[in-house]
Amino acid sequence: MVHDYATTTNGTSKRCSALPTTNTVDVSSVSDLFEFICSGPLVNKIGITPQRVGQSIDKWLLYGSQLCRLFQLNELKLTIPQKARLYHYYIPVFIWCEDQIALHNSKFKDGDDVPPLVIGFSAPQGCGKTTLVFALDYLFKTTKKKSATISVDDFYLTAEGQAELRKKNPGNALLEYRGNAGSHDLKLSVETLEALSKLTKEGLKMKVPRYNKSAYSGRGDRADSSTWPEVEGPLSVILFEGWMLGFKPLPADVVKAVDPQLEVVNKNLEAYYDAWDKYIDAWVVIKIQDPSYVYRWRLQAEIAMRQDGQAGMSDEEVLIRFD
């Protein structure tokens, strides 16, 4: 599923609520909301007919109310961007996820241990995929479905591992910072995905890795395991997001013609299918209008971290990383 969406977010409910407050629209009319939902760019693409919207309008209202509570919005006086974000984006994607889970579960017999469905979210850095997954995870919790969220960021090498990577690739700017293929702990990825897939019963628990981007002046390090969130089975779904999910290596001559430094990154990418992509059962792919947005969004995220008192990359380091 491809969606062209370019609204800026920094990945937290507090920041995401800071959307424009002008041009408010009244969503108190159910008929107006029905028309607005049906005018969205996703509903037809994912098989949500006007009839189905009408039959489930109470569900749409409930989900909208819950997301407004999450993001601290006035559900009766949403701005147009806020209304579109909820009813043209988050809620349609959530309903699509529910459909995918139902389809997945239908393939198993009563009494079977049903592994969680793994949904991959692939999108450029900074375009809001983390906030989307945050919203979906919240809606799953409100509907009493157990979910787990992971990001490719959670599997970055430790600070020590990153230093070793730089040492092995002197002068390669693409491996100077975390991000590209080769800067991830693929063994940890496999162990985590395998373990999560086995959380099929009540009482089964595990801690999920997390990464601290503010450590070492923004270069980052794996978060202490004592801070990792714990998830408990039976899981219905695993939401796996990352900017390079689904990427495949290209012919070596093509890569070399673009930038010789890409050769080692392209080679590293060969191992990623078995570590990530083969575990994904369904995909959400988000497209943006202009690649230059990536730099601006990443810069906004780093500035926000610094304003929150955390260490972040400097403006110059962001430019070098994404140039």
UniProtKB/TrEMBL annotation:
Residues 118-243 form the Phosphoribulokinase/uridine kinase domain. GO terms for molecular function: ATP binding; hydrolase activity; kinase activity. Pfam families: PRK. InterPro entries: P-loop_NTPase, PRK/URK. Keywords: Hydrolase. This is P-loop containing nucleoside triphosphate hydrolases superfamily protein. It comes from Arabidopsis thaliana. The gene is GLYK.
